[in-house]
Structures are given as C-alpha cells and as structure tokens.
Amino acid sequence: MGCVGYSLGIDLGTTFVAAALATGTRVEMFTLGDRSVVTPAVVYLREDGVLVTGEAASLRGVSSPDRVGREFKRRLGNPTPVVLGGQPHTVTTLLGTLLRDVVRKVVETEGEPPDHVLLTHPANWGPFRRALFEEVPQHAGLTNPSLVTEPEAAAAHYAASRQLDDGEIMAVYDLGGGTFDATVLRKKPGGVEILGTPEGIERLGGIDFDEAILSYVDYTAGGVLRELDMGDLQTTVALARLRQDCVLAKEALSVDTETILPVFLPGRHFDVHLTRSDFEDMVRAPIESTIGALSRTLQSAQVDPADLSAVLLVGGSSRIPLVARMVSAELGRPTVVDTHPKYAVALGAATLAAQAFPSNGAQVAFDGRRYAGRPGTPGAAPEGAGAPPGTPDVASAPTVVSGAGSRQRDAQPFVPAVGSAGVAPSPRRSQYDAMATSAAAPTTVGDGAPGPDATTVERSAPLPQPRRPPPPPPASAPRSDDHDARSEGGPAQPSTRIAPDTTGPNGIAPAIPWQSGRTRRSGLPSPDAHTGLERRWRARNSTGALLAVMGIMLALVVFFGWNLIQGPSPSDINPVNELPRTSSTVVPAIPIPAVGPTIPVGKTPVFIAVSQNGRQAYVANRDAQVVTVVDTTIDQVTATIPIAGGPPQFLAFAPSGRTLYVTIFNDQKTIHEIAVVDTRSNTVVATVPQQARPFLPAVSPDGKMLYVPNHDIASVSVVSTKENKEIAKINVPPNPHWVAFSRDGRRAYTANHESNVISVIDTATLKVVTTVPVGTSPHSVAVSPNRPLVANVNFDSNNVTVIDALTLKVIATIPVGKNPRDIAWSPDGRFVYVVNEDTNNISVIDAATYKVTATIPVGAGPISIAVLPNGRQAYVSNKNSGTVTILELTD
Fold this sequence. Notes:
By secondary structure, this protein is an alpha+beta fold. It contains 14 helices and 51 strands.
C-alpha cells in the first residue's frame, strides 16, 4: 500500500473518459489506456454477459457493432434503454460500468483507494439529469463522491496554473466529443463563481464533425455508402473502420492543411482528398451556433465581451483551428487553448478534490471489499470498523495542491471554491461548496513564493526522466556567406546555475534509497514517497530527526554565510517582474510531437528565444527592425521593442532572465553591435559595438561573460556582462556562427561554417583546445542537458552530427531534411529537434538510437526553434510566413 494519500478527479465524457490524481503538490493525469492517457467511453457486451469497457470494447466493436455502446451519455434522461447484443441497459448502468473500471484501475495501480473522488458533469444539466447522474457512482461501488460542473473544473485547472485577480471574468467554451457548454465564471476571494445561466447544445461535438466527413466521403463517391447492404457483416465492419478513419482525418486537419482518407469497402477501394478548407466549410455553421450560445450566456451574466480576460477553450474539439479564430473574431478577446484540452476538466477535478474532503469520507467497494474513509475524518468510520479484516487503511494528512495543469506555463497556486450561482445545487454539492470555500491555503516553498507546479501528463509507456531538472538546451546557429543576407535563427536558451552532476553514464540519475517507496504510473518512484517514508522514520527515531534538523541548520548557516561573502550570482536571481511560470518538473518528451496553434508575429521572424521562466517568447523580426514579445500563456503578441541600430538577428538571455542580448548587423550603415534589453521594461538600455557581424551569442552559466561569434573575422569576442565591454578575443577557424556552453561552463563550442569543424574552447584559458571535423557548413550547435553529447546541424550536407563530449569524437551522423538551420534538445535529453528550412519541417531524432522518429510540417521557411524549460512546447519561427508554430512535445 502507498504511504501517501491521493485524490481522484474523473471526467466521464461523451467520447472519452479521463482521470487525474492529486498527491501532495502534484496533479497529474492517470494513464487509462494502453495507447493513450484517456480511454474511449465505450462499453461492449461479451457473449458471457460481461461488460467490457475502454479500448478493449472499442476494438471488439469493430467486428461486432451490435454489441457495442458509444456516446450513451447523450441519452441520460431518455427512458429508452440502450440495447447491446439484444439486451437492454440503462444509461446510468453503462456510465457506472465505465466509472467502476476507471476507479478499479486506479486503485490497483496506486495500491490504495483515493481519499476523495470528484466527478464532473455539464453545467447546463437540470436537477433531473443531475439526480440521475448521482446514481452512476452507486453502480460503480463508489459512495459519497462530490460533483462539480465541467467548466468549474476547467476553470480550477486554469486558475491553478495561472494567476487570476479577484473580480477577473473569463468564459469557458467547452466543445467536446458529443456536447457543447458555455459558461461565464468570475474569480472571487477563495474561489470562482458561475455568472448568469450556462448554455449548451445537447447534440453537438466531435462525433457530429466525424459524421460530416463521412457524408462528404459519400458525396464525393457518388452516394456509394447509401448503396451498401447494411445487413452484410463485412459491410458493417468496413463502415466501422471508415468511421475511425474519419476521426483520424479530422484530427490530422487540425495540424495540417490537407489529408488523404483511404476508403476500403467490399469490392471497392479509393482515396478521398480532404483539405482543411473543405472541413471548415462543413463545420462552420455548427461552430457559429456555439458562439451564439456563448453570446447568450454572456448576456444572461450581463457581461460585455470586453470585460473578459480570456475565453478558455476546453474539450478535444476545441483544437480545431477554426474554433479559436471564430471565437476570437466574434468576441474580440484572446482565446486560451490548453495543451491537451480534453485533460483540463479531469485535472481541475483532481485539483478541487484535493482541496475539499467530504465530512463523511468517500467509500470504494471492489470485489466485496469496502474501503473505509480516511481515519479521523469527521463522519468516517472508526479505525478498524466497517471494513473487512485485512482491508488497507488510508494514509493520513490531507493533501493540498499548489498548482496543476497539462500546459504548465506558470505555477501560480490558487485554491478555487466551487461556486454554483445560477445552478440549483444538490445536497452533496452544497456540502462540497462549503468545504471547498474553507480549503487550506496553498503550499509555499523557499521565501514564501508559490511552489513550482509539478503536474505531469503521463504517457501510457513513459520514458524515464533525470532526477535532477536539467538546464534548458543551449543555443543553436546561423548560416554562411551565401545565406547571411537572409539571417538566421535558433534558440538562445539561457543556462541555469550548475548543480553537481549526479547522473550516471547514461544520463539517468542513480537510484536513491528512499526511491524504493510508492511507484507511479510512469514506472518512476514518486518524490512523494520520500515524504511518507521520512515521516515514518521520524516517528520511530526522534533522536535521528533532531540530528537531521541540526544538520540542515548547519548547512543553511554555511550556505548563507558563504553567500554573504561571495554575494549572489546573477544566475541566482529570478526576474523581479515575474515569479517562475513554467513548472520546474521536466516532462517526458514523445517521439512524435503534435502541431499546435500558429501565431502571427510580423515580417521575417528570423530568430526566437524563450525567457528563463518560460513566460515570454522573444522574436527577432529582421525587416521590421523590432523584437516581438509573445505571452506564452495566451500565445498572443503583447509588445514590440524597436531596435534603432538596425535589423535584429539573434537573441540570447542572461541566466537571470532580466537581460536579453540582441545581435545587430546593418550592412548598409555598417553597424555591428549588441543591443542590451532590460526585459522588465522591454527597452534597450545599452549597446556594445562589434568589429564584424555578430552571430548567435551565449551567456556563460555564471552570467558573467557573453561570448559573441564574429562571423567575418574568425574570432569570438568575450564581453563582460557587468560592464558591457569586450575584454578578450578568441581566435577560431573562419566563419563562426554559433556558441553553446557546456553545462559546467568550462567549455564553449562554436560551429565554424566555412571550416567544417566544431571548435572546442577552454573558458579558463580562452584558447581553442581542439577542433572536431563534422559535415559541410556546420550552422548551429547544441549541448545535451544531461549527457556528454554535443549535436550540430550541417547546412549543406543535410545532416546532424553527434559528438561525444568526453572523447571529442563524432559518434553519429543522421540524415535530416534539406538545409537544416537550427537544433535544440528536449529538456529531458531524449530527443533532438532539427529545423529544416527548405523542406518546411522539423526532424525529431531519438538520442538513444540516433534515428529520425518523425518529420513534422510547420510554416514556410522555418529558421529557428526554442523549447520551453519544462519541455512541454517548442516554438518555431517561420521566416517566410511571418508566423510562429507551436509544437506540443509531450502527451
């Protein structure tokens, strides 16, 4: 049995079921499927009368569609039963079966029942449907769970990952697989409340869009589907597979502009070409109806669209690009799309569940065993009472969540209450509301600032992570003389203070004794296991605990005493204008990233860099002579910084995040300089003249030195960041493009474009110690965050070279797209992302096998890439289309 309790939030959707756990300060998705985090809301009746759910049911339903039930949540309240294999079933029974299997899987994995369970439902359900929904947990053997509306849960997830001010109003646009809901919420002290009357469209969602594609296939094929013999089993199976292919086509058009839909019918096979514009024409009218419902909700709440801080897009179907465009155009407000909008409700439910324990305790029954509520909780059975012998106890001490979210751009804790204005609450809801309002305050760390958000979205087969969060990937590089006029790009990600490297030879930290505790779904021990084991140890040995405390106090005295002598390092200082926004927890990267939204950023975005805390992306717009600032929370341009000296080319952050260095070369005016930008005011505060065209610089990990490659004079300038003055020059082979530091700052690597080598610089002696021959025209270079590896792209030989940083030998050469321009590592060190300028795509390389796992299309003329410190997203600047493409790097 685990030593730390947890709370469980479940979203029983129309097409998918999602679950999330809150443990300690962590809120994370629970992997329900074998191939996906969520599981289909599908039930299949076997020949022996047993109901099977999830992926197994969906697969069986292809060959026996008469025995499978889908989308039955829509029918809640309809007295007509759902017939499976000739047998009638009520909707509440089927929903209860789904819920039962979800909770059973969670309990089997965690080794103990949840302390509290919270279920979500649409906000526009009336008392009759809510009363029916309250019967569902009884069919699952679950008693006394709490209920909350889906938009309230989504808002709780949003608020837990972003700071909201009291009185701030937002709208939740929830377009899921089968229903649409619109709700207006207002932040109030201690929680959120619903304003006006939520509106919904009962039968509108992703499955209707799938049907639209199926009708399009029938239309383009001259009505072939209507001529099929539906009594033939082979035809039924073929149609079931075609419907699945329609779903895949719909999802593909959210990231691409066209797709091919294969059609296999009895005696006939053909392909249907489908473009995004064709699909948008099919769904434009229903999306307009959802916007009408949202407008009516705003009117009932007496809220003008201008008063909204944002419109939160929730539900898997909200990822359709047309949705964000139409909503934003109609209301004139920014839209916020979560990384995985289908997870937002479950994550928010888990957040709320962790913040309010029911007075009588939730009880879960499986296989004849009933698990009692938390001992000591008011209303719970006494310890040892009401449970069969051998029933495991539930761990004590309630959990307080400090932050959550599948798109962790910030970690501002927030304790939302469940307001229900305009909705008649059930008795359980009323009880829950009262406790949510009095929930405990969020945890803090360090100097009282909110603790970093540790939310992760687990994969079904997650990759292991380093125990120590690695620094963000270093910078990448520009091009040679025949490419210079077009300028270059790559992520100049700042370094962090270097901690002792405790990783093993494969880059993974060795096991720590306390890690033998409770194991999470990822296969990795939970950091929370440490807390529970340490609590037991202290209870058994108070003397040892006292010695431990004394040791910690001594360490603090030594540490702060040394800092008083040394003074703070620049890398120790957070930007004063912002607390860290991104989670300190690096999430596992996946082999095939998804393409997210596209952000218009203006003319010729030649380089992009992400701030140290992940809150902003800065884009160098060469021809516009400005640096554009993008807020990564809403993915909107929020500011532009004029660069008077000339066209901005490359960007590099100081480790503190307070300073941005912008390289400028204006050949017409012969201006070569570095502009120093204060990121708190977004103004140029100083300039550093250069003798030649400065390409991509890098700041040393201690923040004291700026290394600037001088493309035309075969040297690297060393600039003091304190005085903004050049203090040394390092001679290197001709045409240096890129600089990247090793994690400890002892070495710097430059890509020497015309010399076809990577230079290795000793930063203590300021000398080149060796050069490593690579491919033709090395353009950019990046250092692995957790392994002794250096990777570079070779622009004219269309490949990537990987160098062993210990032996300084090339160990792999990987073919990629045409004219690779930039390169970056995932923060977990498992993948390398390569920007291929002339093939308009990104190559993803597995750092273990040195094989390309995916080729992802982006905009026209991709030229640079920057990865968020937590590894969730990457931003790609597309020079020719004037846009930035967001890549979703995690599940």
